[in-house]
Design brief:
Elements (H helix, E strand, L loop, with lengths): L1 H50 L2 E5 L16 E6 L5 E10 L4 E10 L6 E4 L3 E4 L23 E7 L5 E4 L5 E5 L11 H4 L1
């Protein structure tokens, strides 16, 4: 009988040891998951610090950039004070009372302490109702001066994270692991 009790106790002790080992393994998995999450948060914070150093603002023909922006041309200054270039930059201009949106695309903006000015746009559209005071007598739509435009900035960082800085200056992550756009092929280089 003593042998049977000893065997039962041995099985219980072994079962307890297996359970404790399994519980320790689960705790180690949770800890590794937490460490992985902390690393991901650190990387995002590091990327965000660099992305926070990229900004854009509308410029006026009456201000500092008078020589670059001619009267009536929409333009924005973009500054990348980060450590790495940003890619596939889209400067989105909006004039809500005129229901007007335009986009200026820039392939790369290198790091620099000085802003670069980009004038004009690659694409524009007018969608939605236009406020009456913005409609000229001939039916055309009058846009706000360049400096009064709302400006949004979208760009991809060197690690492939797509960012957006809205017209209020808030920075948001749009996507992860974004492939950079292919360089446009001109007709002269295709021949």
């Amino acid at each position: 009988m003593g042998l049977l009790v000893a065997a039962i106790l041995a099985v219980l002790v072994a079962g307890g040891a297996v359970y404790l080992g399994w519980a320790a393994l689960q705790a180690a998995h949770r800890a590794m998951g937490a460490v992985g999450e902390l690393i991901a948060q650190y990387r995002l914070a590091d990327d965000r610090r660099d992305a926070e150093r990229v900004c854009a603002w509308a410029v006026s023909e009456r201000e500092t950039f008078e020589k670059i922006i001619t009267r009536g041309v929409v333009g924005a200054a973009v500054r990348n004070a980060g450590q790495s270039p940003v890619y596939d930059v889209e400067i989105v201009f909006t004039d809500p009372p005129a229901a007007w949106t335009a986009i200026r695309r820039v392939r790369i903006v290198p790091p620099s302490e000085q802003p670069e000015v980009y004038a004009g746009f690659d694409q524009e559209s007018t969608d939605g109702p236009v406020e009456r005071d913005r409609i000229n007598d001939d039916g055309t739509i009058r846009l706000a001066p360049s400096a009064d435009m709302h400006v949004e900035l979208r760009f991809t960082d060197a690690r492939g994270r797509r960012w957006q800085r809205d017209d209020q200056g808030r920075l948001n992550v749009l996507a992860e692991n974004v492939a950079r756009a292919a360089a446009p092929v001109s007709e002269s280089s295709a021949a």
